[in-house]
Amino acid sequence: MTRVFVDRIEPTETGASLAVLLVPVGVGDYLQWLCPAEWLPEGVREGDWLQIEFRPDAETKQAIREEIDALLDELMQE
Fold first, then answer.
1. How far is it, in rounded angstroms, from Cα 47 to Cα 31?
2. Could you give the dihedral angle defined by the CA atoms of residues 23, 24, 28 and 31, in that order, rounded to the nearest 10 degrees?
C-alpha cells in the first residue's frame, strides 16, 4: 500500500475531471499520476491524502487469457 496526495483536480476538454495525484518516491521527489476523478472516493478534495493498494486480479487475467486464446483459435481456423 502507498499513499498519494491529491494535488489538484482539473477539467478536461471533454468535460470530465482529471485528478493530479502526487506519489512520493523519495525525499522531496514525487511522481505525478493522472487519474480520472471519478475513480476517487466521494468527497475527496484537493489537499487530501489517499491510500492506494495494488492487488493481482487473477479473475480478469484468466478471462482475458481465454478471450485471447479464443481469438487465436478463430484466426487459426481461417
1. 16
2. -40
In the chain, domain spans = 2-77
Q: 49-71, pLDDT tens digit by residue?
A: 999 999 999 999 999 999 999 99
Q: Which three cell numbers stand for residue 27?
A: 525525499
pTM above 0.85, yes or no: no
Task: Give one DSSP letter per residue of 12-50, joined into a string.
Answer: -TTS-EEEEEEEEEETTEEEEEEEEGGGSPTT--TT-EE
3-class state of residue 73 by DSSP: helix
**Which grid cell is 75?**
484466426
Residue 54: φ, ψ to 5°: -105, 130
Can you read off the three cell numbers belonging to residue 41?
472516493
